[in-house]
Amino acid sequence: EQRSAHRREKRTIEREATTRCFACREFGHAAKDCPKEKEQQQRSNELNGGVVCCYRCGSTEHSLAKCRKPSPKTGSELPFAHCFICQKRGHLASKCAENKGRGIYPDGGCCKLCNSVDHLAKNCPLNEAQRSGGSTAASTASIGLSDMHNMRTGADEDDFHAFSRKR
């Protein structure tokens, strides 16, 4: 029984060593356990009085997902957002200039349809255009699957292949 507990503990340590944090992008822990994120959250709570607010309008009544205010035509799209990479207000980490073009892909990679780092393949505008244009899912899937042979895989590979199986 002690042996199995020891092996289980060893596997956990090995797994954690290869886990990449999506908050600070370092290895060794997950975003939910990120010490930098906890420190950032504590600073943010001190600034906001411990209240979560909408990144677009600053309201404490709702989050960004439920905000009805349209995006501003000039200035920052998210004036109340706080970037954990550069510690500045007005944008999220995926749009940060110091993020080295990684966008939403922490290990590098890009959308398999248009090579953008700003969205997943399942949310690609090309994908939406083909769907609304009456094209089949099979033709969309063939674009992504051809890239797989070039060994360009990314964070949303599973999501994309799940989409291609729904024919």
Write a compact overview of the structure shown:
By secondary structure, the chain is mainly alpha-helical.
Describe this structure in words.
The protein is an all-alpha fold. The chain has 3 domains: 1-47, no CATH class; 52-99, no CATH class; 100-167, no CATH class. The chain has 5 helices and no strands. It has helices at residues 2-18, 35-48, 125-132, 137-148, 157-164. The longest helix is centred in the first third of the chain and has 17 residues, at 2-18. The radius of gyration is 20 Å and the shape is extended. The N and C termini lie far apart (48 Å). GO terms for molecular function: nucleic acid binding; zinc ion binding. It holds the Pfam family zf-CCHC.
How do the strands and helices of this protein lay out in sequence?
Blueprint: H1 2-18, H2 35-48, H3 125-132, H4 137-148, H5 157-164
Helix pairs in contact: 4-5
